[in-house]
Amino acid sequence: MSNQKQNTDIENIITFTSSLPKMENVFPEPEPLSKNIPEWYKLQLSYIENDKTPENGNQKLTIKKCQAIFDVLSMGYTLKAPCDIYIDTLDGETLKFDVAGKIPPRHPLTGSHAKEQFDKMPIDPDFYVRDLLRLNMIWLIKTQPGHSCLFMNPMLGDSSPLTAVPGVIDTDEFYPTGLFSFFVKKNYKGIVKKGTPLLQVIPFKREDFSHEIIKDTDINNKLDEQMYHIRTVFNSGYKTLFWKNKRYKWKI
């Protein structure tokens, strides 16, 4: 593993172990998602026409200044394409694919599901072919007792022909050793490059919840007060006054 800066104030640990330890350095390592911010977000200006001049008490902000969006783009960790993946769905119906290189049969890079295994799944027939692509993401994940992981497509990630099928695995008790499944975009031909973020991994603590519906006759006053707080600054009011940091780091 790469030498990462030690961060001793974080107690929760998620571990990544290569399923091919003798070839560990061949495949892209998992990383905090914050190190893989999508290109569209990097290109987005923070202010409309890059003009920071206030007008009527407000600045012309874009989505780049929305902390809630940044949290989505930086939450958890990412697993990346282990190799180049060639995709051809130009006939609009079937999936043709190939992967660069070969590894031992005990650890196939790709697999498939019979269509009968997911024939009721609501796959958009206008956007995806009916075949699923299954990929060995190489890395085995373990969390502390009481913690699971949500595996999903990178939220608001860059455009891709692959969309991960989401799932939750209790990674404190079970290594996710199977292949991960992906919907595949129709009418596409090209290569998904090695190192492309394909999965967002969000560890979370398993807790029971109950819910209730309450009547709060003072709710409008509370909302007004909240809005006044935010509007006392030109931008980043939520981040400055209400937001709590969420950290997903490496720890040696």
Overview of this protein structure:
- The chain has 252 residues and is of the alpha+beta class.
- It has a domain of 148 residues: Deoxyuridine 5'-Triphosphate Nucleotidohydrolase, Chain A (Distorted Sandwich), CATH 2.70.40.
- It has four helices and 14 strands.
- The N terminus is likely disordered.
Using brief descriptors, characterize the structure shown.
alpha+beta, Deoxyuridine 5'-Triphosphate Nucleotidohydrolase, Chain A, four-stranded antiparallel beta sheet, 12% helix, 252 residues, disordered N terminus, single chain, five-stranded antiparallel beta sheet
The largest pleated sheet is described as: 5 strands, antiparallel
> Percent of residues in helical segments?
10-25%
Number of strands: 14
Count of helix runs: 4
**Low-confidence sequence ranges:** 1-8
- Structural class of the secondary structure composition? alpha+beta
Question: What is the beta-strand fraction?
Answer: 15-25%
Shape, principal axes of CA atoms? globular
